[in-house]
Write a structure and sequence with these properties.
It is a single chain. This protein is of the alpha/beta class. Helices cover 37% and strands 15% of the residues. It folds into two domains: 166 residues, Glycogen Phosphorylase B (Rossmann fold); 147 residues, Rossmann fold. The protein has eleven helices and eleven strands. Helix 4 links the parallel strand 3 and strand 4.
């Protein structure tokens, strides 16, 4: 199948990139033997703009996308968080490419009002919408036109390539990485843990409390050196919602603590993720696993195995293709249920 994939490819970061679900989706499409042409809307807008001022290149980026669609003649267009691209341009692709199917993939949380608006806006121009929050939470969008699906945060063997569960002694006991505190409630939890674990565990924190975030290889290497990690979302309680951090931690064999209100007990096997429902419960869980390294390694290994077997980029990408094109499923996808 011929796929035109519209999403931010971080070309102008020159290797200093964030872990990208867009990149993983691209890899998964290729691994499924699809022809994939990428169009990085933000980068094209900057390249096409006078003085490389991205906002001045928006119209040109939309024109270039239409040119690209005409040249590629895709069967499927997948558009991610490409806010530079207008719905009018997507309709223009339909006019130029007969029978094309268009899908929107959205990996942002529903507690951000602008993202709810983005999903509703895109749904008016696409055939299917894939959201990284569980289907139960998508009922608010009923009747907006497009078909709605849940998609997981996936791992890719070339990215989540480390396995901390295979090591009995690691320099970091517990890690938490952040880069955004807007709409966030999690710093109170981190502060609570800092106060109680000081002098007891090596607790490394990045992206808050005055410490800068880490990206690229620095981030990968930090996870590879960590026994346990906190998957704290900016807000908890949405069914099957997590930041991509959960896949990054679990996929690298780092024992992962998640809030029980996300309902991942319904998706993950037992003895994988470690659930908590209060600060004190989390503190007790951290101490228990820190004191039992064999148990820590077993649970972390189970989590890593499940991610790589079931929530990998190959299954993720093929599910999007099959659901968007309304084709029979080639795999019993673990997340394809309410």
């Amino acid at each position: 199948m011929r796929v035109l994939h519209i999403g931010y490819q971080q070309l102008r970061r020159y290797g200093h990139t964030r872990v990208s679900w867009t990149q993983k989706l691209h890899y998964g499409l290729v691994k499924n033997d699809h022809f994939v042409h990428s169009f990085s809307d933000r980068d094209v807008a900057a390249f096409e703009a006078p003085l490389r001022l991205r906002d001045l290149g928006r119209k040109r980026a939309n024109r270039r996308l239409l040119e690209t669609a005409e040249a590629v003649e895709p069967d499927l267009v997948i558009v991610g968080h490409a806010d530079i691209i207008t719905n009018e341009t997507l309709e223009g692709i339909r006019d130029r490419v007969r029978g094309v199917v268009i899908a929107h993939c959205n990996n942002d949380p529903l507690f951000v009002p602008e993202n709810v608006d983005r999903i509703a806006h895109r749904a008016a121009a696409v055939d299917a919408v894939f959201v990284s929050t569980g289907v139960r939470e998508l009922e608010r969008f009923a009747g907006i036109g497009a078909r709605l699906y849940h998609m997981p945060n996936s791992v890719d063997a070339s990215i989540e390539r480390f396995d901390a569960s295979g090591c009995s002694e690691l320099p970091i006991d517990l890690i938490f990485c952040s880069n955004s505190e807007k709409y966030a409630e999690r710093l109170a939890i981190v502060s609570h843990l800092r106060g109680h674990l000081s002098g007891e565990l090596k607790f490394d924190i990045f992206g808050c409390f005055g410490r800068p975030p880490i990206w690229g290889l620095d981030y990968d290497r930090a996870l590879a050196r960590s026994s346990m990690g906190l998957n704290l979302n900016r807000q908890e309680g949405l069914y099957w919602y997590s930041s991509a951090r959960m896949a990054q931690l679990g996929g690298n064999g780092v024992l992962t603590f998640v809030h029980s209100s996300g309902g991942f007990q319904d998706l993950f096997p037992s003895e994988t993720l470690v659930y908590f429902d209060s600060n004190e419960h989390l503190l007790a869980q951290i101490r228990a696993f820190s004191a039992d390294d064999a148990k820590r390694r077993t649970w972390a290994s189970n989590t890593r195995r499940f991610f790589h077997a079931e929530l990998n980029s190959t299954h993720h990408a093929q599910y999007i293709v099959e659901a968007a094109m309304e084709r029979p499923h080639s795999h019993a996808y673990a997340w394809h249920r309410r």
